[in-house]
Amino acid sequence: MRFAAATAPGSSARASEDFLAVNPRVALVLDGLSSPAELGSGCVHGTPWFVAQLGCGLLQEATTSLERPLVDCLATAISRVADLHRDSCDLTHLGTPSCSVAMLREGPELVEHLSLFDSVILLDGPAGLSVHSDLRVDGYAQEEHRMTERYGIGTPEHQRAVSRLVAAQRPHRNVPDGYWVAAANPRAAQHAVTGAVRRDHLVRAAIMSDGVSCLAEDYGLTDWKGLLDLLGEEGPERVIARVRDAEAGDPLGERWPRYKASDDATVLFCEF
User: Fold this and answer.
1) Longest dimension (CA), the chain
2) Pick from 28, 29, 58: nearest CA to 209
3) Per-residue pLDDT reduced to its tens digit, 36-80
4) To which H or E segment does residue 26 belong?
5) pLDDT one-digit tens code per residue, 99-110
6) Half-sphere exposure of residue 124, counting CA atoms within 13 Å on the CB side?
7) What domain of life does the UniProt record list for this protein's source (predicted)?
8) The dihedral of CA 201, 203, 207, 210: what is its sign?
9) Is the dihedral of CA 138, 73, 78, 13 positive or negative?
10) Residue 114 β-bridge partners
């Protein structure tokens, strides 16, 4: 597996909530869920800390336990991070730090993949291109989501609308018939979208946070195949630059309504 990767924060004023890690067997991207300050999180550490702890633990678990399914590796990593701050933080808080997970693991014959929440995995080979993500969250708080589209990014009205959206989504997080993210409950791992592809049936792949997938999924400036082509021809850094160029031309979100002017952006491109 040959790879190239890039990551960039959405703003220089705050720490990135994305996490990227890769070794010869495993590649993963985590994207922390932003939490409006007024809603609280019950955690004294914050989302960047949580994402880094989970990412490092998951990379280690998936690499040293190659025979274990990825869902079990993720469940173990979630449990271990929860134990790190169980005594200092309220892990029952609806806003406890959480993130999406997208990962690949290459074996002698198969490439396994796992996606939890809205990070995207693209797999491309002779049989065609497949897209793997988990967008169950889109089924909740739809009216609150529409309200965020009525106001310009950065206005007080937009900030209040985003806060109301997050507050409306949180009760559906990590509950039966809800949507699932990596947080403090290891059972969330069992709800990930998983699969495996024969290694000789893959030519290229990519895993990315929604700060990169938006170029195709939300902005419509390319399609999934075109995004893979750009990653291979121009490289991940230039693809992120394309995202930033698009966002700079639409600072208020009039063309592409969104929750913030620019999101953290992380992508890893693999060739087999």
Assistant:
1) 53
2) 29
3) 999 999 999 999 999 999 999 999 999 999 999 999 999 999 999
4) strand 26-32
5) 999 999 999 999
6) 17
7) Bacteria
8) negative
9) negative
10) 103, 194
Q: Report the C-alpha dihedral over residues 96, 16, 256, 147, rounded to 10 degrees.
A: 30
- As a whole number of angstroms, the distance between CA 17 and CA 262 comes to 13
Q: Tell me the C-alpha distance between 96 and 56, whole Å.
A: 19
Confidence of residue 209 (pLDDT cuts 50, 70, 90): very high
Q: Identify any residues that bridge with 271 across adjacent strands, giving them in sequence order.
A: 2, 204
| Triad 149, 97, 260: Cα angle to 5° | 25
CB 97 within 8 A of CB 88: no
What structural domains does the chain harbor? 2-271 (3.60.40.10)
Tokens in use for 47? 């989302």
SS3 content of the chain, % helix, strand, coil (to 5): 40, 25, 35
Q: Give pLDDT tens digits for 107-136.
A: 999 999 999 999 999 999 999 999 999 989
Q: Are 222 and 245 in contact (CB under 8 A)?
A: no
Contacts of 13 (CB under 8 A, 6+ apart): none
Q: What contacts 209, CB < 8 A, 6 or more positions away?
A: 18, 29, 31, 100, 102, 119, 263, 264, 265, 266, 267
Locate all alpha helices (DSSP H) within the chain, ordered by sequence: 47-64, 70-85, 142-148, 156-169, 210-217, 224-233, 236-248
In 3D space, the residue among 248, 90, 105, 119 whose CA is nearest the CA of residue 192 turns out to be 119
- Angle separating helix axes 210-217 and 236-248, nearest 10 degrees: 70
